[in-house]
Amino acid sequence: MESLIQIEPSNWAQLQDIFRENWPRYVVPYMLLDTHMKYPDLTKLFQLKVYCPYGQFSNGIVAILNNETSQDLIMYPLNDTSAMEECLRTTKLIKWDKPIEIQSTTEEVLQMITRLCSKLKIEISEKEKVFTQYLDKDTGIFTDVKLPEDTYVGQLVPKHLSLVDSTWPYKSSWSQNFFKCLMNNGLTYVLYSSDHEPLAWITYEGVLTHLYCVPEHRNKGYAEFITKHAINSLLQSGKHVVAYNVETNVKPQKLFSKLGFKTIGHVYWTFVEPK
C-alpha cells in the first residue's frame, strides 16, 4: 500500500491552518499552497500534487512537481521527520533512479535525505544555500515609490519572454513556459522605458524571485523601484511577502533588508542523483 496519501486541493486550506500555527517558520509551505489555490494554471503547469505521510496532516507535506524535464520535490515535515522518512523510503511515487531537485530544503530535511542516501542508493550531487526573507502582510506599504522619469510599469509581454528567460540562472528547455504562465496570470512586474524596452523586473510565484536589472541600466534605482512596486501590490492584496536570495548574491539580500524584510532562516536547493 502506498504510504504517501494525496491531499486534494479542496483540503489544502486545512493544511494551511496547521502551517499557520508556528509562524513564520512555515510561511513557505503556507504560501506554496496559497499560490496554487489561487492560480490553478501554475498547478497544471507543474503537475503539482500534495501528499501527506500516511494521510496525516500532522506529518507535514511532500509536494511532487513533474515538468517536462524532471521530477522536483518540496518537503516540509511537522513535529519530527520519522513518518516522512519512512514514507520516502517506501513510496513508489518518487523516481529515485532519476536526478531530482529538492526545492527549499530545510536543515532537518537535508539531514533526513542524507540519512536516506544509502537506503535509496542516491547521493547529494549539489546544494545551494538560499536565505529566506520575510515581510508580514500587515506591514504598511511604501509611500516613497516614485516612478523614474520616462518609464512605466506593466506586465511582461510575449515578445520579451525570451529575454527574461535568458537571464534566469536556472534556464532550461521548459523554463520559458514557466515565465509565460506567470505572465498570463499577472505575476510579473516590469519597469519599461518610454520606448517599451524592459529595464528591470521581478516575478512572483508565492515568493518574490528573479529580480533583475539590465546591466546598462544598473545603479539608477530601478531594481529597488520595481521591488517596492511589487511588494506594495502584494501587501495591498493581503499577502505576506517572502523572498529567496542565494547566499552569494549579496546585493539583493541587502536590498530586502533595507526594505524591512527579516531573514528568518535558510534553505538549500538540493540535487540528488542515483549512485
Automatic annotation (TrEMBL):
Listed EC numbers: 2.3.1.-
Record keyword Acyltransferase present: yes
Keywords: Acyltransferase, Transferase
Pfam families: FR47
InterPro entries on file: Acyl_CoA_acyltransferase (IPR016181), GCN5-like_dom (IPR013653), Glycine_N-acyltransferase (IPR010313), GNAT_dom (IPR000182)
First-level EC class: transferase
Record domain N-acetyltransferase: where: 145-275
Domain of life assignment: Eukaryota
A GO CC term assigned to this protein in UniProt: mitochondrion
Molecular function as annotated in GO: glycine N-acyltransferase activity
Family: Belongs to the glycine N-acyltransferase family.
Name of the protein: Glycine N-acyltransferase-like protein
